[in-house]
Write a structure and sequence with these properties.
Blueprint lengths: L2 H4 L5 H18 L3 H10 L6 H6 L8 H13 L11 H6 L6 H11 L8 H27 L2 E6 L27 H5 L5 E11 L4 H10 L3 E9 L13 E9 L14 E3 L10 H10 L5 E4 L9 E3 L8
Parallel strand pairs: 1-2, 1-6, 3-5, 6-7
Antiparallel strand pairs: 2-4, 3-4
Helix pairs in contact: 2-3, 3-5, 7-8
Length: about 325
């Protein structure tokens, strides 16, 4: 800006006139947000500035534009602005409380030529914020002795159409099962802020959702396990199982761009055993939250396990 326009105004009329000029320039150039922000902040001394820019016939910048530009211009004084980055780059990091961290994010954009885009910056800010939130939550839960991740594979009891002819396909032939009421009545050791990963077979999907609600979780999404061989089923021969995702409290979802694909193809093991790839995904999503596996088939490094097979060899 010119030296004349950075000097204090003598009147509200003079300030208002420059706002009208900025409106004309904004419509023609769309690159005046710093100018608008500085102009808006200089008008703070005039209590009626909001009334001026919202009045009928005003052709300067819109009130919302002024407020946003003013907020960013306040956070980044003229001497701290990085001229090789855009106003929007600075706006993306304005909500970061630490000046050092916000400046670090701007310098991160300058590590490439051309600088990283505002979209890349926005995604990186969200990723770092999510990682910090997850780490802080994990430390709190560890100190309190509660679990932020629950991974469960209940022994669902599936009743065939005919116990006389259909029991050859029942899970009871392979391991002790539990009724839905028994599963719902379990005291799940979940923290107030927790994510649940719950395995559900195709015919027991509704029961699994009912158990999830009984444990205090709200359904969010699911993964699909595609097996390398075809199983049994009455309406179709199943080649997949579902890993339902539910949450309670305030648990951070994966950052944008860091979500896993919803379909995982993996070989089937012994009856009802689940591929290790799913537990590994959970560990990568929530590396700091204390985790427990319910109905575990053996020990798992870094996890607490519970179940009548939990002490079995891995």
């Amino acid at each position: 800006m010119s030296e004349a326009r950075v000097l204090p105004f003598h009147s509200v009329q003079q300030w208002e006139s420059e706002g009208l000029l900025l409106g004309e320039r904004e419509r023609s150039a769309h690159s005046l947000m710093w100018d608008i922000g500085d102009w808006w902040n200089r008008g703070e001394a005039y209590g009626e500035r909001a009334q001026i820019v919202t009045a009928g016939g005003w052709t300067g910048p819109k009130h919302q534009t002024c407020r946003v530009a003013g907020m960013v211009a306040t956070r980044w004084s003229v001497l701290t602005r990085i001229n090789s980055l855009t106003f929007d780059h600075h706006r993306q990091v304005s909500a970061i409380k630490s000046d050092a961290e916000a400046l670090m994010m701007l310098r991160w954009c300058l590590e490439t030529d051309p600088p990283r885009s505002t979209e890349q910056l926005r995604a990186e800010v969200k990723r770092r914020k999510r990682a910090s939130t997850e780490k802080t939550l994990g430390a709190t839960q560890m100190a309190a002795g509660v679990y932020g991740v629950v991974y469960a594979d209940p022994p669902w009891r599936f009743e065939p159409y005919s116990r006389a002819t259909g029991m050859d396909r029942a899970a009871d032939n392979h391991y002790p099962t539990m009724t839905l009421d028994e599963i719902k009545a379990l005291a799940v050791p979940a923290a107030d802020d927790c994510v649940l990963f719950l395995w559900a077979t195709v015919p027991m999907l509704l029961e699994a959702l009912e158990a999830m609600r009984a444990w205090g979780f709200a359904y969010k999404s699911h993964f699909v396990w595609i097996k390398d061989r075809t199983g049994t089923g009455f309406w179709s021969r199943n080649r997949h199982e579902l890993l339902l995702i539910g949450t309670r409290g305030n648990i951070p979802a994966p950052a944008p761009g860091e979500q896993f694909a919803s379909v995982v193809e993996a070989a089937a093991g012994e009856h009802s055993a689940k591929p290790a790839a799913f537990a590994e995904m959970i560990e990568e999503m929530f590396p700091h939250l204390p985790a427990i596996e319910l109905f575990a088939r053996g020990p798992r490094l870094g996890w607490d396990v519970w179940g009548n097979q939990a002490d079995a060899a891995a």
